[in-house]
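From: lab user (bench 3)
To: helpdesk
Subject: output format question, protein + flavin-adenine dinucleotide

Hello, I'm new to running complex predictions and I'm not sure whether the block I got back is the full result or only part of it. Here's what I submitted:
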Amino acid sequence: MVTAEEIARITVFADLDPSERERLAKVVADITLAPGESAVNEGDSRALFGLLEGRVEVIRRVDGVESVIGERKPGDVFGEMAMAFGITYPGGFRAAETSRVFRLASGGLFIFIGADAETAWLRPDIALDQKGYVLTGPDVHDAGRWQVDRDAYLLETSVPGIFACGDVRFSPVKRVAAAVGEGSMAIAFVHQFLKEAEAS
Ligand SMILES: Cc1cc2nc3c(=O)[nH]c(=O)nc-3n(C[C@H](O)[C@H](O)[C@H](O)COP(=O)(O)OP(=O)(O)OC[C@H]3O[C@@H](n4cnc5c(N)ncnc54)[C@H](O)[C@@H]3O)c2cc1C
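Helpdesk reply: Thanks, we reran it on our side. This is the complete output you should expect:
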């Protein structure tokens, strides 16, 4: 049986939370390959493999002639291309020596590219959370960063009259529709802010 510690030795899984590695360890198949035995052949159903021990060669057959076009070492994964592009395996993976792999049956691969709040350039009196997202409205109050004798507008930052919207704003909603909607709301808040500023 593959352990969570062994999963951690696969480079792409090394940064997973221990609990996620435990979950993976429970669902992967532990496979030992004799030299010359294939982990996967062209046309096999898609799965992601992690190489725990040994060495695996990448085999490509063109016009009946077989060539070794690469190899995988312990810590590597293979099979990801077919999953990412939704294609059949363009080549096979065959043990060059006695090898141990795990097989994670999965129909697809989703890559989260990630998102960072690029807010280092903002003036320091605009309050941010620990990850750099801009606090607005009630979150500014909760952080003790609101200094004016009225409630902050929903999208107002800690600096009265400066508004934030979209992904850069601290909020669990990171979607196009939310960003667009907040943009139009922010404009309405600007008008309201200016109207009140003129009246006072
Ligand atoms: C991989 C991925 C997939 C997604 N898929 C979906 C989806 O399917 N459906 C969905 O609704 N949402 C999806 N989202 C989320 C969606 O992209 C965002 O919610 C949306 O783009 C937020 O819009 P925004 O205008 O707030 O920010 P952004 O679209 O990030 O726009 C901010 C812009 O500001 C620019 N910028 C940054 N710093 C500066 C600076 N100092 N000076 C000038 N310009 C600057 C950036 O280059 C960028 O162009 C996805 C996000 C990612 C990362």
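A quick orientation on your result: The two ends are 72 Å apart (CA to CA). Let us know if anything else is unclear.
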